[in-house]
Every structure is written in C-alpha cells, then in structure tokens.
Write a structure and sequence with these properties.
The chain is an alpha/beta fold and 480 residues long. The protein contains 20 helices and 7 strands. β2, α2 and β3 form a beta-alpha-beta unit.
Length: 480
C-alpha cells in the first residue's frame, strides 16, 4: 500500500504541540512533510532574524527526534510549493493562517493553485485567540475600541471548550533538490557584537516558551497588575517573542492562565487583556490593511511632523538626555526588548516632544525588537502618537520625569542601563539637569559632559495638577 503524504508549511507557528494544522493533517495522512520557506519578499527585522534562526534550529532538532526532517527553502513560496507538488506523492497541503495584507494575498493565491491541482489545501487558526472576521459588534461591523472588543472576545472564549490533544505524529524524512540548510538562509552575521549581547537574555524555542509560561505563573502572575508598569522589577511574562514566532499558542497561554486557581482574579484579568490587545491589533490590521504606514485617522495625513536626523539618531542610541527614555532605548539595543511602560514613554517622547513621525519609531522597533510583530507594533505606535482607531489623544503626553518617578522610583531601571547616573541621588535621577552646580561638583558630575543635556526643553510642557498625579501631561506646541 502506497503511503500518503501531506505538507505542513511552517510560518509563525514554530512548534509541534497544540498546532492545529499538524493535528488536522495527522488524521488524513501517513506522514507529514514539514517545510519552512523564507519568503524573501516578507518584511523581517534584524533581531527577528536572529530569533528565527535559533527557533528553526530548535524546531529542526525536535522534528529530528521524531525521526523526521524539516525541509528548508528560500525564495517565492508559490514556486517552491508548486515544485514540491510536481515531484512528490503529496495529497494534502496545510498551514496556520497569518493576518497581514501581504500574507493574506500570497496565501490565497497559493491555495487556489494547490486546489486547482486536485490537491486538498486547508488553513487553520494557530496564531490568534479569535480571528478578525469572526468578531462583530451588535451593528454587524468590526470593533474600533479595545474595551468592548475584548469584553466580547473574552465572553466567547469562556464559552469555548478548549482542549489540547498531543496526538502522535509521523514526520517524513524527505529530500528535495532545491532545499538548503538553516545556515544557508544567512539570517545572521555571528561577528556582529549586538548578537552576542542579545544571546545572553533569550533562549528561543518551543520548550523554552513553555518554561517561560511556567515561570510567569509560579513567580510573577500575582504581581502582574502592578508589576507590569514597573520596569525596575522583573514582573512581566516575557512571552511576547515566543507568541510572535508561534513557539507557544495564544490559546494555550490564555487557557493555562485562565484555569490557574493560584492567580487572583485581578491579576488574571489584566494579563489576559494583554493577550486581547494582541488580537485587537490584528483586528485593526485586517480592517485597516495600510495601517503599517498610514494613519488610521486620516486627519493626521497632513500633520506637520518635523524631520530631524540628528535627534532621531540620539533617540535611537539612547542619548537624548532624558534618563528613562535613554534607559529604554539602551535596553532595546542591548537585549532586543523593552518594557511596555517604557515603550509608551519613548514613543510619546519621539512623537510628541521631538515631533518626529511615528513611522520612524515603528521602523526602529520592527528592526530591533525580538517580538517585532506587524500587528502589535503598528497598533502600538498609532496608539501612542494619537492617530489610531482607539488612540491616546494627540495632546496626551507621557511626561518622562513623572513617569520615571512613579514607575522607577529609586532609579534602579535607569541606573542599570545608564550607568553614567549611578552616583546621582534619587531626587535627581530622572531630572539630573536640575542639579545645582554645587551638587554636580559634590557628585563628580557635569551635565553636558558626564551625561547629555536634554535635546528638548521639557519645561515647554504645561502640566496640570490633576494630570501631574497620574504622571501624564498635556502640552501646547508652538511650531516654528
């Protein structure tokens, strides 16, 4: 009897467990041919390439332990899949869906080509909690505001009977003429120093994703509602890059946290809402496919953004003279990640203090973050700059001094990444330029020499007393 084969095309689902496409194929075929194609036309940042390489190595080893082989390709997925189908006894092709405009257009075309060849082609949801086209408000349209969106989605999820099946799957050990090795993908240059820095902080791969989730539940979950805003404390889950590359599914994370009785309701609610924001970002991207480069609110199309290459470079390198902004940007370059509270602070500073276009920030984050996700990154930058669907108003500004004093009260976060300020007293750690000449001499510190003078005058921001207490300010800019 001739064995039947099915292709599973790995993309952002680099895991073997809780993988809907693999599970579906395992019921139809004798063996699964696992493939990965580096689509050269798909946008991917430098730091993401590092993570991808490590994740593929981990996946390759996992499949090998199951006596199979991950077949690696680079190029046009349409041509590569068509070539495989011509030279093999494949009866099925399957993958887990992606939701950015490029992937939707590409995958729709490939599915049409495969089915026209009399080969069954399926796709599945292995990435989101709820897919964009399934979520409608009472008027039958999509949600543009996060809170009602997530309330609706959370109710739907709680009605689901979520069950995970770890079925035994047989993987093929196939060979193809045009396949290459992971090293041949040339994703990273091992000689670059930034790679060596990032490797100290992360271990990509499915098994480590599960360990990260366990660590979060056992050590951090019951401090999340407060801790998620404290960059000076290690109380966030650090699951975002694992979720982005699909080394763990959002549904597994949701279900595991939701049923965990040791996590109190408030902390559980806050954490699950962050998973909801991830879904909401893709909901927006699906309905606003241009949002990676165009503002959702069209009135921002003519906004008078400033072009200032020098200030942008200083922001990139964490040399703005604003301690918590510089700490965040240096954390990003050193570790490939930045605390979410600080992402909002540096984003507000770029777009509302420096008046530089949010796209500058979106592009830098996309290239440098290990969790550079097209949906969340674009939605986040549109939110902080005020031009998104459910955005913070443009005149709402995160005052970096007050934010630092509130969420990094002892300056531990700043001192970790801006060591020039290690000897500065707590009173001035977030505003060292306010030190008197006498104090500067006392602490062997000179503003402008030991640490940069601020590149923008924060005193131009008028801070009302009610908003001062919340660490948020409102500004009126005089554009010259």
């Amino acid at each position: 009897m001739v064995a039947t084969y099915g292709i599973h095309w790995f993309r952002q689902d680099l895991r073997l467990q809780e993988n809907p496409s693999l599970l579906s194929l395992s019921k139809k075929v004798d063996q699964i041919i696992p493939i990965y194609i580096l689509d050269l036309n798909q946008r991917i940042g430098s730091t993401s390439k590092w993570w991808l390489e490590k994740s593929l190595i981990s996946l390759y080893d996992s499949i090998q332990k199951h006596n199979g082989k991950l077949n690696i390709f680079a190029g046009d997925p349409e041509k590569i899949i068509s070539s495989i189908l011509k030279n093999s006894n494949v009866k099925y092709v399957s993958w887990n869906r992606l939701y950015d405009p490029y992937s939707i257009k590409r995958d729709t075309k490939i599915k049409s080509i495969v089915t026209s060849s009399k080969i069954e082609c399926d796709s599945h949801n292995g990435y989101l909690l709820n897919e964009p086209w399934n979520i409608k408000n009472k008027s039958g349209t999509f949600f543009k505001v996060f809170t009602p969106y997530w309330r609706h989605c959370d109710e739907l999820l709680k009605l689901k009977d979520i069950k995970f099946k770890n079925t035994k799957i047989s993987y093929a050990n196939s060979k193809f003429k045009n396949e290459i090795t992971i090293q041949d993908l040339n994703l990273t240059n091992k000689k670059e120093q930034w790679i060596k820095k990032i490797e100290k902080y992360w271990i990509p791969g499915e098994s480590n994703a599960k360990l990260q989730l366990k660590k979060y539940i056992s050590q951090k979950a019951n401090n999340y509602s407060v801790g998620r805003d404290r960059p000076d404390k290690d109380l966030t889950s650090k699951l975002s890059p694992y979720l982005h590359f699909g080394e763990i599914s959002a549904l597994e994370v949701y279900d595991t946290v939701n049923i965990e009785k040791k996590i109190d309701p408030e902390n559980k609610k806050k954490f699950l809402a962050e998973l909801g924001w991830r879904d909401f970002s893709y909901n927006l991207l699906f309905h606003y496919p241009d949002m990676t480069h165009k503002p959702i609110q069209s009135k921002f199309n003519k906004f008078p953004w400033i072009k200032n290459a020098k200030n942008l470079s200083l922001w990139h390198n964490g040399k703005t003279g604003i301690p918590i902004v510089d700490a965040g940007m240096r954390q990003l370059y050193k570790t490939g990640w930045m605390h979410n509270r600080v992402r909002m602070i540096v984003g507000s500073f770029l777009t509302k203090n420096l008046l530089l276009h949010w796209k500058n920030g979106e592009e830098w984050f996309f290239d440098t973050l290990v969790d550079a996700d097209v949906g969340s990154n674009s939605a986040g930058w549109q939110w902080i700059s005020g031009c998104g669907a459910d955005a913070s108003p443009y005149f709402r500004i995160f005052n970096p001094i007050l934010q630092g004093q509130k969420f990094d009260p002892d300056g531990d976060y700043v001192k970790e990444f801006v060591p020039e300020l290690n000897n500065i007293p707590k009173k001035y750690i977030h505003n060292p330029w306010e030190m008197s000449m006498e104090d500067q001499k006392k602490y062997n510190f000179e503003i402008g020499t030991s640490y940069p003078t601020p590149i923008v005058d924060l005193s131009l921001i008028h801070i009302s007393e009610p908003t001062r207490r919340r660490g948020i300010s409102y500004a009126v800019f005089c554009l010259k």
